[in-house]
């Protein structure tokens, strides 16, 4: 009844409605609930007690059972504490490969099931770049042996040993070999000795010979030991014989060390051939002068520090013209003195130079009188099939030659009779020294110029055409730069010529020529000289004699010791483990150095191009070859034997210091590179990244690529760096004839292409759209191949592109994607690269709209463009600098909030006209660098950096991002969002500029370099301060990444890896 009263009348059924108990209240209901909870807890405790009691009973039962069993079997062996520690220690430190593998399989299975259950899709994820190692052929030499069975063994030996004969067509070379003789020498017999006529080429067919020099004290020094296949010859002696000035052996002798067979070819045999084929004759002389320029004057000077030792200072000659103002300017034999004390000397190479109230300080025309308007000289431009003037090129400096377009209003006190006499003297001097019968060819092309004291005629490494200069009166100092100081080579007095070597080779000047006193010279422009040479080829001999007679006897000894060899594409120059008996200088072509590890894996060490010294470390340290060096393409090399280096060290001990310095830099550089590569990722290790190319081939992916416009824009940008040349099939047929690409003209085409490579800093080969003969020629000649495609097109492999995998397996290939100006940001670059595993890297180029117009297909449209100054900030200039090894890299270090200064620094760099070609960064530098690479606009970059900085200083964001400090103070979710919103979710390979960032991998305790993948993730990883933000997981391998400043705060070295 009580319960019914508490429930209330309205809650009770009708049959109880007659009860009179009072209704329920809230307190009564609460008491009921509490009672129920108490009953539940007590019941639960009872159950727990019952379970525990049962468990204890079971345990006790089994313990008693075990004790009875142990008592029956005897006492248990004691497990001592130290044994227990040792046991568990080994257990924890043992390898668990099988367990980890099983765990990995379980994780993958769980991950797959989770994704399937949650219906996760990967459609929204961008395409990932698959980094592959280069093909095996890329690092492997060609060991196939295909001898030429059509040539007799003796002829093949001669052809292989003396590469200069390669410029001859085969019938001409066989004609030469008719004069070849075979000599049999016994041990100790002399092949030649001092006093014999130096007029033969020798090639050792079998045996060994010792070539040595005899000093003034009768002591002998070995220059080289000639082995089978090597030659004994001096190209300078070859020039002497052809010019009619043969010389006997003065210090050099050759003696057989064992029974030997030697092939002998008289130099006189060449004279008959040259009479019939003067073009070949001109090319041979140019080859000799190019070798003299690159090996003797350039390589030996740069690497060994030889300067004045290479030339002979002449005696002072009589003054050819006495009425010159130089006579009043001071004595002609006044010492040159120091070349560093006067830093404001007038420079004739600078068009903006003005003297002290004298107008332009260039060369003044001697016939100039007050009130007379002088006429500028403009020589006709000649393009020949086999002897084109070096002036015909896209120059990096002023295009005016020393005799063209330079005027001076310097007041002269000479009369017309004086100038007529000076012109007559100059014409007669040029006629006699060029070996001309009359002065018809020279009288209208020579100009008289007056040079003020201290003015430069030409500067070292200058591409300006100074022409052939004859000193009428005065004194000129010829110097060469060695570090920060200038070394006097010799004085050029009146009656002497200057610039003969540059006229013959077309190379940049190796000397600086400056007027010591007021000097009057006669100038023959290079184009005018080549015009005479096309009519009278023998003038080349006389100009070559002017160069040769200036050389010192020491240079002739060097010339005897050096060999000129040829290495076919894919062949090894030397192999790992070979004896180190010589050093090599690259004349043309490209070499690749590869090391084979103990596990048999090959690794790229480096590449070498024209002018580099190869193998010097092993030669100086007398150790076996540490790498295998092979030819990327057909390569010509000069070989410096070990004996020659020893002879140079004995004669000039100062060279030892230079060699020690060179050796130290090589060893230090290789150590830094190896340590950097060892600490980087496998992608950096295996992908080739070598630049400074001499020849570049350009291939289009599809026909809609504006290839001609692309090459014109690129050659325009290359012209600002050095002399460059663009070659197409149409141009070749126009210059060399329509049949030049036929197999019968193979030698002629090879010779002409080599000549252009000798004359120009870089040669650009534009391939045809199909795989024609010309396209194959371009690929064979190339140091690097540019594969050009449209960035907004489909990443399909073109037809000509597919054949590259078989034709150029060792040539570096680069992908170039063109984008229209004002278009969208690059996308889907990974798909392009995944379809072309043979490409080493890629370049995004934003092209002007004019490239895609119909007018751009015609060459006349770009004639005006070539004459304008290229924009150093354009993408084409960036590609040009990358090809020539002159790129400008920017590395931004860490520093937290101080990274805001990076914005102002980039702005200042741009205002100073300094381009930025590639960017790397760490921590805050990674963020700022990513902004610049994606925007390339200072204003936009500043706005985004400002907005991001404001977000990072908002307290409410930091409070919301706080978390339990198990690994960090903040969860990092807000930090991730701010970075992702600022730089977008793009891939590193889709940036406009090449970019990399550094992180610290705490999983493997190493440094990581990131050049592809998700941009915001790796930027966030590189900005992750340990303890503040949690590490970010690398989506590729699951490793944990934090701030890169812990391992390298300013990673500038990685631009050289």
In short:
By secondary structure, the protein is of the alpha+beta class. The strands form 8 sheets. Strands 27-28-26-29-30-31 form a 6-stranded parallel β-sheet, sandwiched between helices. Strands 32, 33, 34, 35, 36 and 37 form a 6-stranded mixed β-sheet that branches. The longest helix has 48 residues, at 26-73.
Characterise the protein shown here.
With 1057 residues, the chain is α+β, with helices and mostly antiparallel strands. It folds into 5 domains: 1-66; 153-290 and 558-686, Jelly Rolls, CATH 2.60.120; 313-335 and 344-368 and 391-550, Jelly Rolls, CATH 2.60.120.10; 695-883, P-loop containing nucleotide triphosphate hydrolases (Rossmann fold, 3-Layer(aba) Sandwich); 889-1055, Cytosolic phospholipase A2 catalytic domain, CATH 3.40.1090. The chain is 37% helix and 18% strand. It is built from 33 helices and 37 strands. A 6-stranded parallel β-sheet has the order 27-28-26-29-30-31, sandwiched between helices. β36 and β37 form a beta hairpin. α7 (235-242) crosses α14 (539-548), α8 (268-276) packs across α9 (278-304) and α20 (707-718) crosses α27.
């Amino acid at each position: 009844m009580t319960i019914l009263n508490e429930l209330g009348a309205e809650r009770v059924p009708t049959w109880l409605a007659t009860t009179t108990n009072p209704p329920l209240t809230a307190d009564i209901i609460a008491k009921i609930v509490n009672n129920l909870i108490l009953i539940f807890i007590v019941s639960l405790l009872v159950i727990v007690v019952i379970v525990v009691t049962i468990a204890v009973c079971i345990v006790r039962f089994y313990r008693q059972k075990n004790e009875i069993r142990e008592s029956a079997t005897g006492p248990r062996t004691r497990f001592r504490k130290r044994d227990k520690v040792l046991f568990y220690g080994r257990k924890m430190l043992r390898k668990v490969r099988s367990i980890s593998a099983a765990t990995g399989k379980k994780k993958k299975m769980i991950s797959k099931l989770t994704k399937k259950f949650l219906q996760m899709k990967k459609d929204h994820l961008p395409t990932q770049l698959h980094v592959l190692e280069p093909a095996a052929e890329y690092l492997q030499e060609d060991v196939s042996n295909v001898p030429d069975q059509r040539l007799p063994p003796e002829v093949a030996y001669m052809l292989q040993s003396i590469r200069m004969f390669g410029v001859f067509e085969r019938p001409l070379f066989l004609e030469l070999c008719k004069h070849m003789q075979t000599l049999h020498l016994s041990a100790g017999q002399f092949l030649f000795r001092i006093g014999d006529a130096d007029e033969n080429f020798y090639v050792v067919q079998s045996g060994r010979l010792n070539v040595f020099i005899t000093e003034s004290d009768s002591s002998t020094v070995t220059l080289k030991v000639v082995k089978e296949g090597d030659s004994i010859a001096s190209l300078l002696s070859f020039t002497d014989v052809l010019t009619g000035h043969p010389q006997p052996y003065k210090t050099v002798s050759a003696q057989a060390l064992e029974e030997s067979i030697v092939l002998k070819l008289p130099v006189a045999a060449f004279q008959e051939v040259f009479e019939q084929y003067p073009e070949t004759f001109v090319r041979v002389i140019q080859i000799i002068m190019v070798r003299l320029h690159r090996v003797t004057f350039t390589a030996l000077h740069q690497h060994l520090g030889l300067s004045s030792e290479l030339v002979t200072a002449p005696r002072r000659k009589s003054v050819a013209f006495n009425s010159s103002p130089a006579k009043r300017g001071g004595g002609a034999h006044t010492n040159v003195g120091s070349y560093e004390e006067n830093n404001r000397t007038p420079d004739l190479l600078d068009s903006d130079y003005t003297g002290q109230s004298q107008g332009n300080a260039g060369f003044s025309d001697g016939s100039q009188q007050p009130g007379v308007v002088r006429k500028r000289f403009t020589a006709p431009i000649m393009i020949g099939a086999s002897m084109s003037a070096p002036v015909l090129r896209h120059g990096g400096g002023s295009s005016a030659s020393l005799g063209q377009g330079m005027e001076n209003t310097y007041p002269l006190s000479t009369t017309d009779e004086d100038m007529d006499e000076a012109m007559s003297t100059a014409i007669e001097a040029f006629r006699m020294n060029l070996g001309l019968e009359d002065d018809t060819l020279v009288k209208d092309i020579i100009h008289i110029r007056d040079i003020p004291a201290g003015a430069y005629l030409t500067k070292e490494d200058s591409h300006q055409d100074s022409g052939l200069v004859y000193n009428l009166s005065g004194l000129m100092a010829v110097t060469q730069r060695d570090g920060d100081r200038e070394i006097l080579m010799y004085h050029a007095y009146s009656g002497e010529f200057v610039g003969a070597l540059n006229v013959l080779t077309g190379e940049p000047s190796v000397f600086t020529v400056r007027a010591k006193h007021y000097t009057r010279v006669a100038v023959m422009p290079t184009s005018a000289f080549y015009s005479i040479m096309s009519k009278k080829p023998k003038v080349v001999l006389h100009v070559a004699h002017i160069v040769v007679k200036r050389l010192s006897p020491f240079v002739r000894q060097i010339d005897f010791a050096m060999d000129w060899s040829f290495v076919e594409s894919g062949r090894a120059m030397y192999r790992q483990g070979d004896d180190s008996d010589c050093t090599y200088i690259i004349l043309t072509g490209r070499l690749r150095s590869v090391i084979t590890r103990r596990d048999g894996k090959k690794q790229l060490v480096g590449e070498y191009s024209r002018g580099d010294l190869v193998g010097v470390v092993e030669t100086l340290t007398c150790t076996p070859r540490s790498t295998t060096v092979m030819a990327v393409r057909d390569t010509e090399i000069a070989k410096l034997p070990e004996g020659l280096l020893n002879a140079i060290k004995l004669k000039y001990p100062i060279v030892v210091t230079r060699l020690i310095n060179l050796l130290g830099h090589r060893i230090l550089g290789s150590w830094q590179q190896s340590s950097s590569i060892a600490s980087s990722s496998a992608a950096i290790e295996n992908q080739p990244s070598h630049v400074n190319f001499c020849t570049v081939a350009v291939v289009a992916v599809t026909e809609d690529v504006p290839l001609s416009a692309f090459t014109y824009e690129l050659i325009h940008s290359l012209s600002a760096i050095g002399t460059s040349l663009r070659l197409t099939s149409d141009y070749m047929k126009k210059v060399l004839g329509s049949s030049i690409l036929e197999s019968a003209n193979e030698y002629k085409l090879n010779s002409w292409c080599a000549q252009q490579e000798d004359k120009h800093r870089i040669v650009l080969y534009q391939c045809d759209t199909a795989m024609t003969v010309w396209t194959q020629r371009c690929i064979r000649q190339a140091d690097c191949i540019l594969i050009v495609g449209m960035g907004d097109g489909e990443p399909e492999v073109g037809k000509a592109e597919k054949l590259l995998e078989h034709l150029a397996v060792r040539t570096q290939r680069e992908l170039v994607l063109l984008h229209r100006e004002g278009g969208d940001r690059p996308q889907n670059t990974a798909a392009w690269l995944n379809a072309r595993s043979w490409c080493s890297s890629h370049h995004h180029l934003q092209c002007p709209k004019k490239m895609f117009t119909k007018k751009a297909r015609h060459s006349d449209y770009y004639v005006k463009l070539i004459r304008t100054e290229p924009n150093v900030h354009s993408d084409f200039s960036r590609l040009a600098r990358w090809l020539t090894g002159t790129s400008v890299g920017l590395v931004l270090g860490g520093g937290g909030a101080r990274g805001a200064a990076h914005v102002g620094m980039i702005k200042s760099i741009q205002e100073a006209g300094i381009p930025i070609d590639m960017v790397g960064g760490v921590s805050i530098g990674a963020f700022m660098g990513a902004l610049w690479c994606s925007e390339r606009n200072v204003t936009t970059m500043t706005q985004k950096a400002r907005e991001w900085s404001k977000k990072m200083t908002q307290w409410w964001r930091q409070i919301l991002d706080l978390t339990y400090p198990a690994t960090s103070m903040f969860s990092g979710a807000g930090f991730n969002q701010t970075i992702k919103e600022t730089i977008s979710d793009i891939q590193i390979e889709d940036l406009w500029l090449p970019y990399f960032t550094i992180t610290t991998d705490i999983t493997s305790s190493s440094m990581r370099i990131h050049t592809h993948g998700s941009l915001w993730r790796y930027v966030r990883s590189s900005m992750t301060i340990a303890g503040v933000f949690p590490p970010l997981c690398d989506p590729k391998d699951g490793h944990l990444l934090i701030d890169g400043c812990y391992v390298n705060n300013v990673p500038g070295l990685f631009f050289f890896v």
